[in-house]
Amino acid sequence: MTTSTLLPHDLVWLADAPGFARVNALPEWASAAWLACAPLVVRRDGASDARIPVGLRGTTRAQRHAAWLPAAQVARVVTPGTIARQARWRDHPRHAALPALVALARVAPLLDAAQANWGVTGGAGFTLACGIDVLHPGSDLDLLVTAATPLPAELARTLAALLDDAQVRIDIQVATPFGAFALRERVRTGGRVLLKTVNGPVMSQDPWQPQP
Fold first, then answer.
1. With CB atoms counted within 10 Å of each terminal CB, which end of the chain scores lower, N or C?
2. What is the pTM of this model?
């Protein structure tokens, strides 16, 4: 496994959780037992084929930790797109009680109909991918839309309309070949956005063009 096959927001499971915990200075909550079950999230950062930038997450927002993962440690990968296609929110025991999952069930058909290349990230993606429920009634719904070229007008309108959901905050990140930006910010500014790149954040008027 090399970094060229992994993208930000992909979830990876460790091949040797005790070994990873042993050689890294980790917070107390990130035990080997936790890491044996909980996937790590690929971060956007400079990397090599030997090391993958990842983020560890626990059960609360305060439990976050950045680390570097040897490529040989990757045992399994689940992408945001795979989580969307599996549609496991339908079978989640609290699917009717969690606004994020209620919203996900509502917007998924709209995204599919709009032919968006989309996936689920954040707490909802983590919960649906590994079965460890970190969602609560106030959880946002985080979505990722991958677009190699500028969003078609109809798709852009469909996505922008989702940002006005009255039941839950829906955050949509759009990934381009050069980085990713928050759709909410682009709707607000009409153009200029903060683009997250492997070399750090930059302001961009056109996220589909190479950054200076």
1. C
2. 0.94
Per DSSP, the three-state class of 90 is helix
Which residue has 């040797």 as its token pair? 16
Which of 171, 162, 82, 167 is closest to 123 using CA atoms? 171
pLDDT in tens, 142-151: 999 999 999 9
Which neighbouring-strand residues pair with 182?
Answer: 173
> What element of type H or E holds 109?
helix 99-113
Look at the block and give the residue holding tokens 């090391």. Answer: 51
As a whole number of angstroms, the distance between CA 136 and CA 3 comes to 32
Mean pLDDT of 73-97: 96
What's phi and psi for 13, nearest 5 deg?
Answer: -105, 145
Q: Which residues contact 212 (CB under 8 A, 6 or more apart)?
A: none
Six-digit token string for 188: 């607000």
Question: Chain-wide mean pLDDT for the chain?
Answer: 94
pLDDT tens figures, 133-192: 999 999 999 999 999 999 999 999 999 999 998 899 999 999 999 999 999 999 999 889
Report residue 139 CA to chain centroid gap: 14
**Which of the residues are catalytic?**
140, 142
> What are the CA-CA distances from residue 188 to residues 151, 160, 201 (Å)?
16, 10, 18
Complete domains list, the chain, with CATH: 3-78 (2.30.30), 80-204 (no CATH)
Is 112:143 a contact under the CB 8 Å cutoff?
no
